[in-house]
């Protein structure tokens, strides 16, 4: 069904409603209108990395882990799986009259904010720090979720528009003030791509103000840019209770009716919250018009018609509940976990030789933790395999003894409240290590330590991090394990930049989803070569960064950072030596030959970066312009063609205008950035060529 037809039907339906009925439909928990055969509908649903908060569903790696795969096609495949499960659950639940929260088809995903500062607790919901990676993955997630049938399989929502990336503690009152250049160069491109290339059905505003205007009531963002400049035709939803922030915390309005009117005039159609209960009062006070209320309702019902919710020929109505939580979907989750994990350090201890190891110690607070698998905004899997379980299953099948100790709490200094001394599991961890041939320490964070303000329990900083170190108890654990002299593999379950310090090898596992333990075991023992790449820069310390509240991009992310990173954006090691040769680059694409010079099947990520040579407006460092994942057998070579992002040969000037970057460009293609730290860690430089455009 095309949008014109859906809107025509919506206009006809809304035209039969009273003004009170129209206003009632503008809250996320829209009530039924029985006389018009309109069922109740709850717009609030989540699907960041699987159908979330709605019962049993496949749980994929957290978004930051999916980003580490650097694979657009695979990313869309994951989204297609998510939306099929969404339909399966919706069909069954609505047939039983269950139309509660989290059980609809309008999903408030993906989160395409830029992860500009590693302290931000919600950064693991995003696709990282780069606008091109974020835009491309965001577009493919949207396409996968929404499908390409007569009706939408599900409706995606790009959030949070715009310039939202912490601090969480002041998000309801904070005024982010980026420059015009930073807006156009960094903060807005992924949203523009979501609208123009992804055809996203919804956009969610942010809590913060942007240059003085609340994002959910911003004329500059919602009217001038989103609907004006970009031609967005879908609906806009507020972040939850963000409109009440207008008068409670931003103090740009005095009353709830004034806040409702400000949001509605800017084109915010749907209120997650309850401020739109005051829409009729705003109408009586002359703050909004009946036409504005009607238009918001029409936009919302247009989406419902596009989803086929009032149709008798929707191709997705036949998807049975048994399409959810299948073996095939679990296998896809395992593939995602395998592809996402990034090896950032290896002195030769990995892969482990199962013929030489008779006893393996597995220690750490995240070793047997389901929370370490799931990140936030997660569903509920029936198939969780913790890291300990995955390793134990693998080892038991091969006669390897596994010793386990939690070693330390995730945070705090003791596990037993009656313990007289701190670090009350430390000696047990050391004992296990001393009795083993190698040690796997599974440390890191979870959603209680990095996440959304007020979500779960948030031990400190409203979900944000104060520094880039592991909690003190975990640092003590790693120090003690390192002193045993046993080969030490540090596995970090985390959603952001964390400096783990110790380990002969270090593997960033992210929050890898339901199959994380199986994937880890296969990587540790060399059944699968690690192939993830970092979608964010890992810094040495927050001392290297500007103030958290500074929204200038200066000295932030790999494109502007002037220091020496711990591990660079785009970095990740393999068990296999890959060779790159025969780079050919023009204004359309870069073509490169990639060879697997190792002795096992493996996947490589080809990264292409571009640097404008003639423009003073170019970012200081080469910027990602394209990427492609390629699978190779031992000795196999393939020619890989990587198309550039359409922004590759442009720059943004100080006025916020995207213009030509000149005629001369340096193109780099290989398995990392061309920066000195990446070359040092990888032991090889990307190939490079000059491209001259007329």
Structure write-up:
It is a single chain. With 694 residues, the protein is an alpha/beta fold. It has 3 domains: 312 residues, Glycoside hydrolase, family 3, N-terminal domain (TIM Barrel), CATH 3.20.20; 228 residues, Glycoside hydrolase family 3 C-terminal domain (Rossmann fold), CATH 3.40.50.1700; 115 residues, Immunoglobulins (Immunoglobulin-like), CATH 2.60.40. It is 29% helix and 17% strand. The chain is built from 20 helices and 23 strands. A 6-stranded mixed sheet has the order 9-14-13-12-10-11, with helices on both faces. It has a 4-stranded antiparallel sheet with strand order 18-17-22-23, with no helix packed on it. It is globular. The two termini are 43 Å apart. The relative contact order is 0.12. The mean pLDDT is 97.
Fold blueprint:
Layout: H1 3-14, H2 19-24, E1 29-30, E2 41-42, H3 63-67, H4 72-95, H5 131-146, E3 157-161, E4 175-176, H6 180-187, H7 189-196, E5 202-205, E6 209-210, E7 213-214, H8 219-229, E8 235-237, H9 242-250, H10 256-265, H11 279-284, H12 290-306, H13 327-340, E9 342-346, E10 359-363, H14 371-374, H15 387-396, E11 401-405, H16 426-434, E12 438-444, H17 472-483, E13 488-493, E14 505-508, H18 516-524, H19 557-560, E15 578-585, E16 589-596, E17 602-612, E18 623-632, E19 637-643, E20 650-652, E21 658-660, E22 664-670, H20 676-682, E23 687-692
Parallel strand pairs: 3-5, 4-6, 5-8, 10-11, 10-12, 12-13, 13-14
Antiparallel strand pairs: 1-2, 6-7, 9-14, 15-16, 16-19, 17-18, 17-22, 20-21, 22-23
Helix pairs in contact: 1-12, 4-5, 5-7, 9-10, 13-18, 15-18, 16-17
């Amino acid at each position: 069904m095309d949008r014109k037809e859906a809107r025509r039907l919506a206009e006809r339906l809304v035209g039969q409603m009273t003004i009170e009925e129209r206003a009632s439909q503008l809250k996320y928990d829209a009530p039924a209108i029985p006389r018009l055969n309109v069922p109740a509908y709850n717009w609030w649903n989540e699907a960041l990395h699987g159908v979330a908060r709605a019962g049993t569903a496949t749980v994929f790696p957290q978004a930051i882990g999916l980003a580490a795969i650097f694979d657009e096609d695979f990313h869309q495949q994951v989204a297609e799986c998510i939306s099929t499960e969404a339909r399966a659950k919706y069909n069954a639940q609505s047939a039983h009259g269950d139309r509660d929260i989290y059980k609809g088809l309008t999903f408030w995903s993906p989160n395409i904010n830029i992860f500009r500062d590693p302290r931000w607790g919600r950064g693991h919901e995003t696709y990282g720090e780069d606008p091109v990676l974020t835009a491309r993955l965001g577009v493919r997630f949207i396409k996968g979720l929404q499908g390409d049938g007569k009706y939408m399989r599900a409706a995606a929502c790009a959030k949070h528009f715009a310039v939202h990336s912490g601090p969480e503690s002041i998000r309801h009152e904070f005024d982010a003030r980026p420059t015009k250049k930073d807006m156009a160069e960094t903060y807005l491109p992924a949203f523009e791509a979501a609208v123009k290339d992804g055809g996203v059905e919804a956009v969610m505003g942010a809590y913060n103000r942007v240059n003085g205007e609340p994002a959910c009531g911003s004329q500059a963002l919602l009217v001038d840019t989103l609907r004006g400049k970009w031609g967005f035709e879908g609906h806009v939803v507020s972040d939850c209770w963000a409109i009440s922030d207008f008068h409670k915390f931003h103090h740009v309005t005095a009353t709830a009716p004034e806040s409702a009117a400000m949001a509605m005039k800017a084109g915010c159609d749907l209120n997650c919250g309850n401020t739109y209960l005051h829409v009729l009062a705003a109408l009586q006070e002359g703050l909004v018009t009946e036409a504005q209320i009607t238009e918001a309702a029409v936009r919302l019902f247009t989406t419902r018609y596009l989803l086929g919710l009032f149709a008798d020929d929707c191709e997705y109505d036949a998807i049975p509940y048994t399409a959810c939580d299948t073996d095939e979907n679990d296998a896809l989750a395992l593939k995602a976990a395998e592809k996402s994990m990034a090896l950032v350090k290896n002195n030769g201890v990995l892969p482990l030789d199962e013929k030489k190891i008779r006893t393996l110690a597995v220690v750490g607070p995240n070793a047997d933790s389901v929370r370490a698998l799931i990140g936030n905004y997660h569903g509920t899997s029936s198939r969780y395999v913790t890291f300990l379980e995955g390793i134990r299953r693998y080892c038991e099948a091969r006669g390897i003894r596994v010793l386990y100790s939690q070693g330390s709490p995730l945070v705090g200094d003791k596990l037993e409240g009656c313990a007289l001394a701190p670090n009350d599991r430390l000696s047990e961890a050391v004992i296990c290590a001393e009795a083993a041939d190698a040690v796997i320490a599974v440390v890191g964070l979870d959603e209680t330590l990095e996440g959304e303000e007020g979500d779960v329990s948030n031990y400190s900083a409203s979900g944000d991090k104060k520094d880039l170190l592991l909690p003190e108890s975990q640092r003590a654990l790693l120090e003690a394990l390192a002193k045993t002299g046993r080969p030490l593999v540090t596995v970090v379950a985390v959603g952001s930049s964390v400096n783990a310090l110790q380990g002969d090898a270090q593997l960033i596992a992210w929050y890898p989803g339901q199959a994380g333990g199986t994937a880890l075991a296969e990587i540790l023992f060399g059944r699968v070569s690690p192939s993830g790449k970092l979608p964010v820069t890992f810094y040495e310390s927050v001392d290297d960064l500007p103030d958290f509240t500074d929204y200038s991009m200066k000295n932030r992310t790999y494109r502007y950072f002037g220091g020496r990173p711990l591990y660079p954006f785009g970095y990740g090691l393999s068990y296999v030596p890959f060779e790159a040769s025969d780079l050919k680059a023009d204004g359309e694409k870069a073509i490169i030959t990639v060879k697997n010079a190792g002795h096992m099947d493996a996947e490589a990520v080809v990264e292409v970066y571009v640097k404008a040579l003639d423009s003073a407006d170019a970012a200081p460092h080469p910027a990602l312009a394209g990427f492609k994942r390629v699978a190779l057998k031992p000795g196999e070579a393939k020619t890989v063609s990587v198309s550039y992002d359409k922004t590759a040969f442009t720059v943004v000037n100080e006025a916020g205008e995207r213009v030509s970057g000149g005629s001369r460009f340096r193109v780099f293609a290989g398995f990392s950035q061309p920066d000195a730290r990446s070359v040092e860690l990888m032991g090889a430089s990307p190939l490079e060529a000059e491209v001259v455009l007329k």
